[in-house]
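Why does residue order matter? Because the sequence determines the fold. Keep that principle in mind as you read this record.
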Amino acid sequence: MSFSLHQGTVPLLVSMPHTGTGIPPELQGGYAERALGLEDTDWHLHQLYDFLPELSASVLRPIYSRYVIDLNRPPDDAPMYPGASNTELCPTRFFNGDALYREGRAPDAAERLRRRETWWQPYHSALAAELARIKAQHGFALLWDAHSICSEIPWLFEGRLPDLNIGSANGTAAHVSITDAAAAACAGAPGVSSIVNGRFKGGYITRQYGRPDQDVHAVQLEKCQSLYMQEAAPFAYDEALAKKIRPVLKNMVTASLAAARALYGR
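Structure:
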């Protein structure tokens, strides 16, 4: 199994597509040695979102690293942000633009296809099936796509990111009341900045599965890792910081779910 899925009892699925840390042994020799440190992982999200069992949410997480396959990229590898630096379906660069693989060892077309079929497709099949199950049971579904990233990465974006980046593909992936609720829930947090549909508007998962006209709403939250951990190796979790931001995240998730329920009179 290349992912773990916990099925909850409420109309909420939380996807964490970049938390995987596995690299199959047969692939490890092709990477630059530095890659085995997995620096571009969305570190510790499951620990940060430890309130999800209390909410009875469904949670989907991969086993393998985004360095193997990026589950938040389209299967045809089309750029998510045309004109900007983009990572690929099978990434070949670190977030700073350096080569991820040893010379001549980057995956070719056949290997990219194999990885897509072996690891990308099962995750998306599980995601689609769980959304369908939730919608069949509750009449609608809310997908929360959880991410984190270093607050400053010049190769990907200029300057420093806002702390909390809420994305709904410019309003096409979720009803505006849901993103408004998420934004309102974090607006009063002291020392925490936020934005809706800024630099990160939602990746493939948000754009593909968010279908408000079909009663499925999707929101991506890209948060700065400085809110809860060390952004440099060894990428340690900081519980003192996490204690401050975790209630904000919980409020955002519960407010978004309440807004979705209100749309359907639930």
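Residues 89 and 123 are 14 Å apart (CA to CA).
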